[in-house]
Structure formats: C-alpha cells, structure tokens
Amino acid sequence: MNIHTPAPVAEAIGQLKQTLGPKGWLEEESDTLKYRSDWRGGHIGEALGVARPGSTDAVSAVVRICHGAGIAITPQGGNTGLVLGSIPTERRPSIVLSLDRMTTIRSLDADNFALVAEAGCIIKQVQNAAAEVGRLYPLSLASEGSSTVGGTLSTNAGGNNTIRFGNAREQVLGLEVVLADGTVIDGLNTLRKNNTGYDLKQLFIGAEGTLGVITAAAMRLMPLPRVRETALLAVPDPEAAQTLLARARELSGFPRAH
Ligand SMILES: Cc1cc2nc3c(=O)[nH]c(=O)nc-3n(C[C@H](O)[C@H](O)[C@H](O)COP(=O)(O)OP(=O)(O)OC[C@H]3O[C@@H](n4cnc5c(N)ncnc54)[C@H](O)[C@@H]3O)c2cc1C
Question: 188 C-alpha vs ligand 1 centroid, how far in Å?
C-alpha cells in the first residue's frame, strides 16, 4: 500500500496478522482490490489491508487493536452499496473489515418464526434456509445474491416487498454488535414481547457501521406464501394507484408492515 505507516500502526498490523492468520488478513494489492473497489467500478479506496475475522471474538480483537492504534475501520458485507459507504476513502490509516467469513446460520426456529444469522450471510442464503422449513424471510432486492445480513441492516435496505413487509429494520428482533472499543453487545433476543429498557438495536440499523460492527442478527420470519399470483394493472393516475393499493390491502387481509 502507498500509505506511510507510523510505528504504532505497523505494530498494530503485526498484531492483526497474528490474530487473524493468513486467511484472515489480506494486504497484497491484487488480493485487496475487490474489497477496495466500489460496485459501479468508479472508485478504488486505499487501505492498509483487509481483515476477514471468522468469529465475533475475532471481530472484537480487530476493533480493539485498530482502536488502540487510531486505525479507521470500514465494515463491509457484500460490497453492493451504491454510495461508497463500504470502501475506504479517507486519506488516513484504515482497513476494510469484511464479514465474508461469518456466514453461519446459528439457529432456525420454525415454530417461533425466527432465525439467527451471522452478519456475512448472503440474503439469498437466509431466504433459502427459511424456505426449507416453510418460512419466508421477506427482504428481497436485486442484489440479494450478494448483499448480506449486516449490510442490509446497516443500510436499512428496502426492496420488492417493502410495502407488505417493511424495510430491513422491520425484520429485526435483536442484534449482536461489536462497539468501537471491542465491547460485544449480545442482544440476540427472539422474544416478541420484549419490553425491557432501551431498544438499542435501532441505533445500529441504518447507521452504515458508524456506531459499531453488526456480527449477527435475530430476525423474524413469515409463513411461506402458498400461492403467488402476478397481475399487470394499468391505472390512469397516481391517485388511482393509491386507491387500488388500499383496496388490495382490504381484500388480502394483510395490513402494511408499518
Ligand atoms: C443490483 C442492485 C440492486 C439494489 N437494490 C436495492 C434495493 O432494492 N433496495 C436497497 O435498499 N438497496 C439496494 N441496493 C443497494 C445495496 O444492495 C444495499 O444497500 C445493501 O443493503 C448493501 O448490502 P451489502 O451487504 O452489500 O453491504 P455493503 O455494500 O458491503 O455495505 C453497506 C454499508 O453498510 C456497512 N456495513 C456492511 N456490513 C456491516 C456490518 N456487519 N456492520 C456494520 N456496518 C456494516 C458498510 O460499511 C457500508 O456503509 C442494490 C444494489 C445493487 C447492486
């Protein structure tokens, strides 16, 4: 990399290498290029390297080391964001923290309509796992073959089913998050009737990684629709479209998610 590395930064990189092992730390230009390039291909950021931790504890260790050395962190999921949030752009020592090795679905409770997935799980993977037990993970967007749980929550992504089921925010029951000093908040709650204290998870949803790194999420599921019908309807003006939508909601018995 072309960035001047002061002593504490070089020391921190040594610690990162030791903590993460060869699979977990990339620094060759050719290895890091895809993590530093934005989806549209117009921007390439600079980074000391790419950390690819395989567990929440490893994420915590990475964040603690970087915090101590003043190294900036850009968390990254599928890198499908279109606003340069997932690539490092600052002229200061920084790393990309990719969640692409944290791809385990930790639990799936069909009876409780809930699953817990690690942040690097691809949305399609979550949809498929839910469908296998007759459940629907309703978030659906054109990037679902590459975008991740952590990325969609950090951007509060919408998509094709937003009117019926809400944005990513509406799917979340609880989060596990690593804070800037390495502290792990374990809030992987799947209880619907949870009325205790502050709803901390809401701070991290839509925050683009500015307040912490999401490492796992508990998410609600829906029954898998038994039948799908598609209709193409022509309406004369926007008011007619609104009336039609309201009528469809009345007839289908589905309230809007929000
Ligand atoms: C073809 C296409 C269609 C799309 N359609 C839609 C659409 O319908 N609706 C929509 O809302 N968006 C859409 N997008 C944009 C993009 O897919 C979404 O923003 C998606 O949520 C990004 O997920 P990602 O995993 O790729 O995150 P990334 O692009 O990797 O990251 C996005 C942001 O989240 C942060 N972040 C990532 N992971 C974490 C984490 N674990 N913890 C903390 N912060 C994190 C990053 O730092 C960055 O700020 C589309 C993109 C493409 C390419």
Answer: 21
Question: 106 near 175, Cβ under 8 Å?
Answer: no
Q: Which domains does the chain have, with CATH numbers?
A: 7-98 (3.30.43.10), 105-223 (3.30.465.10)
DSSP H stretches of helix in the chain: 7-24, 29-36, 56-69, 123-132, 149-154, 162-165, 201-204, 238-252
Taking the centre of ligand 1 as the mean of its atom positions, its distance from the CA of residue 247, in whole angstroms, is: 33
DSSP assignment of 95-135 equals EEEE-TT---EEEEETTTTEEEEETT-BHHHHHHHHHHTTE
pLDDT tens string 75-97: 999 999 999 999 997 778 999 99
pTM reported for the whole predicted model:
0.94
Read off φ and ψ for residue 220, nearest 5 degrees: -80, 150
